Amino acid sequence: MAENTLLEPPVPRAPLGQPFLPDQPYESIDNLMGALNAWGKDRGLGFVKKKSANKVNGLPTYVEVVCDRGRARESQATVRKTSTAKTGCQWSGVAKALAINQRRWTFEIKHAEHNHQAVGDRAALTTHLVHRGFSNAMKVEISDLSSTPGIRPREINTSMKAKYPEAIFTLRDINNYRTREKRISLNGYTATQAVLKEFRELGIRHSVRMADDDPERITGLFWIYPWSEMMWRRFYWVLQMDNTYKTNKFKMPLFQVTGVTNVTSNFNIAFGLVDNEREDGFSWLIQQLDVFRIELGLPEPEVVITDAEKALRNALQATFPDVPQLLCLFHININVVFNFKRKWYEPGKTSINTKDEAVDEPLLDETDQKQLDWLKAFTNPETAPTTMSLPAPGEFPVTRASLYLFWRFMVYTDSQDEFETAWTRLKTEFPEQKTIHGYLEDHILPSKQQWSNAWTSQITSFGQRTTSPTEASHRELKSYLVNGNSDLYKLHQVISQMLIHKADSFEEAIAKQRDRQRFEFIGQAWLGTTAREVALKGIQKTNHQKRLAIASNLKDGKPLRPCTGSFRRKWGLPCAHELEPKLAANEALMKDDFHRFWWLERSLDQEDPLLRLKDPAVVTSLKGRPAGTGPFATPKPAVSSTRPSLRRSQSHWEGEDLTEVERPPAKRQNVIRAPSTCTKCHTVGHTRTSKKCPLRYSELLVPNSTPGTTSGPASGPASGPASGPASGPASGPASGPASEPASEPASEPASETARYDSPQAIYQRYTAARSVWYAAQPRGSIRTNQQYRKAMGLPLRYGKVLNRATIGVLIGCR
């Protein structure tokens, strides 16, 4: 018969009396003990130091070594039932560091007998503490694995044994090492104190609630992470709220506020812990959420989706009275299915369950489960039908399946009139189901505005009608938790790791939809560039509306129903009625045709609340009655666009005019001002600085001293090309009679000769010199004023304020 090595106990080896230590003497006692235990490990033995003596320079030179199965000490435990591996083994030896060996260590046996078995397998070695432990590399790996959420100690144990088969350790060693590392990381604080300290250091928004009877006892904690703030800014329209349990050792329910992105993933907005689920606890959580919302400058949400928790709904109504609330449609349907089953009346049935408490799911039979799955499919926007109709009277059997048809129509119809019609027919077609009628009237119909599509389609919810994303977030969080007894610091670490994963997944999904395009939308001109700018789900819903618009124009197509705007309000997407004229005009959709929720990328800086703030108004009155509020108030003057004066403003007594105080001031807009009169030519209609004045440049002109001759340097040959028109005998209008009356001013400046330094003379010389330069250039070259100034080394630009002393220098004539 083959030997069964798994069932038969191992045969103990006879220990050697004298350990074989070939490397004696050793440089240190630690090296000697390491070699001694390495020898004993193969033989199922372990050795420890007992006592030392004969110190030289503060270091011992004599150490007594004993077997680790030596004399047992009396236990000091009073509660735990303890045990020991000690057997009173008398084996012993001596390690010495003699001067003759230059204080290097040697070993010799004093008592060579053991009184216990020596088994060298791994399981037996775990009872020898001297052989158990971790190397530095193993410690680093255990720390890395422990920091990864969801990895349990037993999984770390399996991984380490596979990687380090020669190492001796147990699962308890791993737990003890993790506990020791955690204690070091807390740095003397408790886990609750450490998490609040880290919140302050990392700038994480948080709020703490203290007990009324003990101001140092925490009863509530609410916090939000930076990534959650960013996502809240981006998708603030729809919020979902729910509690989950078994997440911490304090048994406090974990409150989560979540949202849904345009790539159909969920994200966490805020987390809260409170010691009760009464309205008082929920009110504190919702109030802290509102405080954070105001700090972030965010508007109130468009809608909040919850389950039927009455305390939570009341707290929301008190904090957000203008925000509509929706009930989770999944919870509504499952409760209706349960109660339809319990309250269904059949002839011959002696009793009906009239209670309204929840029923466990196993009570549903296969038929009921199919009906529930059928209703679940309608909560999915991708599988929900666009149109529904009720069967005609008498065309259906009176069964529970037929009752579900009426209920489904009441849930998903988009007409309030059709809803009332379906409810009336349900009571008429099922007259014997009085208990079901009463259940619906008392518990379901009072909140119909919060679950029926006839009312919820008027609210912008982007198709969200259940709290399934929040439930998914609960499951994901618990997949990161090792157990339900975590402290707050561990809970904070786990949530942080979960959010890092969610952030990566969201960015990857955005990049994928932005950079990849589905083949069905390639070459679709009606989409324009929106196929890469708008989320895929929005494109798909819009594409379905486009098919409806096209089908309505076919010969056998069904015409569109009158537009109620419910699709645009509910989804934030263009409906078939909006697409129809665009398709007819071959007009492509633009990004602005879609709600901002669907945009793959948008600048949150433009939505910064600081950008909506305006500058302060200019102060017009510092004392007394504000300007423009008295009985004789005048309209506010227009704000001047000129630079404000820095001169001192007049005091009140300096500018006061008693005559103006006693009578109403004249209205400035009715005052007719006299036209201006020139002080140089005395002509009405302009001023002396106006270009209309004919004498504006008269000081630059000098009259001719003798008729027919010119005076000044302009008459000489040195005047250059510019002197032609001004030299020689005067002719034309300039040669008038000298006996003209002196009292009549010269109205034509051209009759006088320009001075040498006047602007007219300077510019004439400049243009003449430029003409000469133009004529000297080769044929085909560029001849412009700028080219001439570059060639002459003149400035290409000059200021507006010039005088006669600098004009000539700037244009090259001085």
Summarize the structure.
This protein is an alpha+beta fold and 814 residues long.
Beta-strand portion reads 5-15%
What portion of residues is helical? Answer: 25-40%
Average pLDDT across residues? Answer: 81
C-alpha geometry: extended
Judged by helices, strands and strand pairing, the structural class is alpha+beta
The total count of strands amounts to: 13
Radius of gyration (Å)? 48 Å
- What strand order characterises the main sheet? 5-6-9-8-7-10-11
- Number of helical segments? 25
Describe the structure.
It is a single chain. The protein has 814 residues and is of the alpha+beta class. It is 36% helix and 10% strand. The protein is built from 25 helices and 13 strands. The protein has a 7-stranded mixed β-sheet, with helices on both faces. It has a 4-stranded antiparallel β-sheet with strand order 1-2-3-4. Strands 12-13 form a two-stranded antiparallel ribbon. Strand 8 and strand 9 form a beta hairpin.
List the helices and strands and how they pair.
Layout: H1 29-41, E1 47-56, E2 59-67, E3 92-98, E4 104-111, H2 122-125, H3 136-146, H4 153-163, H5 171-186, H6 191-202, E5 205-210, E6 218-224, H7 226-234, E7 238-244, E8 254-260, E9 266-274, H8 279-296, E10 303-306, H9 310-319, E11 325-327, H10 329-343, H11 366-379, H12 400-412, H13 416-429, H14 434-444, H15 453-456, H16 468-480, H17 488-515, H18 536-552, H19 566-571, H20 576-584, H21 652-655, H22 658-662, E12 701-702, E13 753-754, H23 759-776, H24 785-792, H25 804-811
Parallel strand pairs: 7-10, 10-11
Antiparallel strand pairs: 1-2, 2-3, 3-4, 5-6, 6-9, 7-8, 8-9, 12-13
